[in-house]
Design brief:
- The protein has 332 residues and is an alpha/beta fold.
- The chain folds into two domains: 141 residues, NAD(P)-binding Rossmann-like Domain (Rossmann fold); 145 residues, Dihydrodipicolinate Reductase, domain 2, CATH 3.30.360.10.
- The protein has nine helices and 14 strands.
- The strands form two sheets. Strands 8-9-10-7-11-12-13-14 form an eight-stranded mixed β-sheet, covered by helices on one side. A six-stranded parallel β-sheet has the order 3-2-1-4-5-6, sandwiched between helices.
- α5 links the parallel β5 and β6.
- α4 runs parallel beside α5 and α5 runs antiparallel to α9.
- The N and C termini lie far apart (44 Å).
- The relative contact order is 0.16.
Amino acid sequence: METTTRWGIIGTGKIAKAFAAALRETPGAILAGVASRTQGSADNFAREQGVEKAYGSYEALAGADDIDLVYIATPHTEHAANATLVLNAGKGVLCEKPFTMNRAEAEQVVALARANNLFLMEAMWTRFQPALAEVKRIIASGEIGAVSQVTADFGFVAAFDPQHRLFDPALGGGALLDLGIYPLSIAAAILGPVASVTAQAEMGPTGVDVNTGFILHHAGGGISSCACSLVTRTPVELTVSGTEGSIRMHTRFHHTESITVTPAEGDARTIATPFLGNGYVHEVIEAQRCRHAGLIESPLMTHDETLALMGVMDDIRTQIGLRYPADAHTEV
């Protein structure tokens, strides 16, 4: 049985470098190629990260014979086109969040993967972290009783630059797509599918959201209160509350190494939840497991859930009045 997976990376930015580092620490992973829009950028990345081959176009990497899975690490607005390119070339895709700019784009990408029987997964690394697995285990054990509330935040202060991707509408800027997806996704992972959402936001000078809050009503019962911001430094914590206690995922909840369980009676205890490498290793392991098993999606981050969460963000954007140039090509 094949035990190695030959990876390609599209994009050469910060997240691509973090992913390359994770591949070096993942059993069975080989970084076989990297692609940029320019040969020089690809060459520099390959030299720094020890990549076997550097490609001066995304098309060249997509068409390479010695690559099995491709990680897409480009700006938000390019995700759909890049994923489509790779899938059409017959390769599986791990696409960085947000999966696409809107649900309509996501539906097209998912349909293509399903039609061609190719692996496709949103790279929401939180879903694969040991901390979330432990939170789910404790909830299932009944220790904190019936769970019906989640609160989560993710915010930092970003220096305003109208040309930076965080503030540029043409690049999918704003707090929601970049940061809000984290509390949204993990709230759904804990309380289940979202039935409805109510949102408010403060908009910045370039027209994107810079301070956003939203309340989720989950289909199976329960409420989540989420916030994201580019203008406030929040605790970046998550609390799950039940009838018999609560669980707190500490600072950087999406990437935490410990959680605290506080029962209604008795003392609180902190549980270590260390992750492998820089944390991205876990999603790599899952993608490789799915590929070797012949799966086209992961049960931990299914196509349907990715589509549903993109739809929730579409609803939030409608409520706060945020549209992107990319929306002109689809119905949002």
